[in-house]
Amino acid sequence: MKFPEHGRDTGNILQDLAARKQQDVDWQSGRAFAYVYDAGPEAMQLLKDSFTLFMTENGLDPTTFPSAMELEKDVMSMAIDLVGGGAEAEGSFTSGGTESLLLSVKTARDYCRTHKPHIKQPELLLPETAHASFFKACAYFDIKPVVAPVNPHTFRADPAAMAERVTENTIMMVASAPSYAHGAVDPIEELGQIALEHELFFHVDCCVGGMYLPFARQLGYRIPRFDLSVPGVTQLSMDFHKWGYAAKGASAIIYKNGAEMRRHQYFAWSGWTGYSVINPTIMSTKSAGPVAACWAILQYMGREGYLDLVECTQSASAKIRAAITEIPQLYLLGEPRTNLFSFASDEVDVFKLAAKMKERGWYIQPQFGFGPSPANIHLSVGAGNATHTDAFIADLRATVAEMAAKAAGPSLQALPEDIHLALKENSPRLLEELSQLIAGNDGDIAGRMDYINNLLNLMPPPVRDGLLSEFVNGLYSKASA
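That's the Glutamate or tyrosine decarboxylase sequence above. Prediction below.
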């Protein structure tokens, strides 16, 4: 697209934008089990109105727009209250879970640079189920990730395996509550004791659980202790834009010892010719829209509203899980207790199953196999999905039965010979050959996603990471527009 010479009519522009959404996932249908979190039309309108009210205000300078700072302080106080932070806890409002995790790792590293200068090559200790953003943080901040295996049946972190991998260079340990892939809550209390014994920082990733698990516990569901009240836990991340149903761009990083820790998170610079820069988080300029919308939805829902939503989604999740266990070809992974879970199959191709369910109007999320976890399908069940549970179960049963009747097992048992040879030889032709295989004769990538996913599932993670990066790089190229 060339830069426009002349302006356009606003109505025409909005019509153009609306048209561009036609190929997007229809999240308003309640048939998407990932990416979007919808608490209903009234809540959605409140988010839009409150976001717009503060869209232009800039969180860069709290002395210019004190309203943005006050809203953030309110939001953080509510979050700290919810996750047992205590009187000394402090934190920061961030743009999402990834930024929260990046800040946590960066803060631990910088603290250790000051207080543990003997550590020259810092290490981050994490279970193999930890979120990919921790590895991103390691790549960004020159930290060595040390990965421990998890229990292959429950997919929970193994305290003994974690303890064995603590070294004099370990600066922080990581756990999930819950992990995204399987919805497993790691044994936080046991891991906290390891952190105390070795004087380590201990981050609990509650990005998907921070606005869900507290309410599930209050409702009486068997959720183990996981928050900042657990001895040994020093910091915690939580997203508001997941099960808090806030507008996108709303997360938090919270430190139990806030005043001491948070100063290592900040960046300040006045050694240039411009204004003094003081950044609590990674971003500098940032709209106050997300924090205003977050404040609004927390006030709108209240504890009572979130309890209702969690009860609703817990019931829907239990119903879906029960149905999965009744389908002979499918089985659940781990021992999920909340609204995040995954299922696999030894008899039908899960990637093809996801594609066929998409043909029926459902969006479910396939996941590659890794470690003890086979290729599987992930579901994040939200309030918007709850009223569609029966229809989803009926379509899932019908689709699996249809595939089983055709003996539709995994599409690929091994890589095609040309791809296998290219991988073995580390051939520069690999990406080109794979692109041709992916696109096929008609260039219909969307129609071949089951085949593509099976192909990638058979590759070592570093290889598929490189290929996926190159592929997405091509998608964003001007030539692909």
